[in-house]
């Protein structure tokens, strides 16, 4: 009788055992390498390591621990408290927008969203990023933001403070796909590194690339500025993977690729 009960319990639990074995976890903005994945499309970012292939995905920011299904995998995205950032903008017209500025900002947001949907399959990206600018980190990824004491969306980028005019370089080979002078981000460059890996550079003083131009790692693409909505000169560096804003600091860690596997 005991044996029968054992098998009944095992059969009942079997689906949950399978689900647990297929579950991976990470925190907001992390990058995961998924082995034994189910193909999602022909445009996936795949890296080979030790004769195995891995699907590389970026995890979204979450305000509470959540489960996201990727193919047959259940990805647990753990909430992390990244702290908060409080800034004061003297020009209140850039905080509480009038109808004209809001219309402009919304139209520019559509341009940027469309750009980061790009899936160039002629470029084969690596994750051997270099630092785009020499400076001091002034605001990290994931911080809750308060502007003039008003709560705003979290800061899903890396701010690096530097003197006006300091050179910014491409941290990885890519193609410039969008340039603009936008309401919030000022002079901005977006670079496509291939297969959904895209980076953005905002608040620039000058731009040294053109749309459609290929840039090599280390090429000077612009200079640090304070255009758009800012409190001082800095680079606002955003990195997207599968349209999710990931934590750029992860890309600058020593031997980052090895930590994926």
Description of the structure:
The protein has 261 residues and is an alpha+beta fold. It has two domains: 2-78, no CATH class; 84-260, Glucose Permease (Domain IIA). The chain contains four helices and 20 strands. The chain has helices at 2-21, 99-115, 248-251, 256-260, and strands at residues 23-27, 31-34, 46-49, 52-58, 66-70, 73-78, 84-87, 136-139, 143-147, 150-155, 158-161, 167-169, 174-182, 186-192, 197-204, 206-207, 214-215, 220-223, 234-241, 244-246. The strands form five sheets. Strands 8, 11, 13, 14, 15, 17, 19 and 20 form an eight-stranded antiparallel β-sheet that branches. The protein has a three-stranded mixed β-sheet with strand order 1-6-5. A hairpin with a 3-residue loop joins strand 13 (174-182) and strand 14 (186-192). The longest helix has 20 residues, at 2-21. The radius of gyration is 21 Å and the shape is globular.
Poorly predicted regions are 4-21
The coarse silhouette is globular
- The percent range for helix content is 10-25%
Our estimate of the beta-strand percent is: 35-45%
Radius of gyration: 21 Å
CATH structural architecture of the largest domain = Distorted Sandwich
SS element count, helices: 4
Order of helices and strands: HEEEEEEEHEEEEEEEEEEEEEHH
CATH superfamily of the largest domain: Glucose Permease (Domain IIA)
Main sheet? 8 strands, antiparallel
Q: Which structural class do you get from the secondary structure elements?
A: alpha+beta
CATH topology of the largest domain: Glucose Permease (Domain IIA)
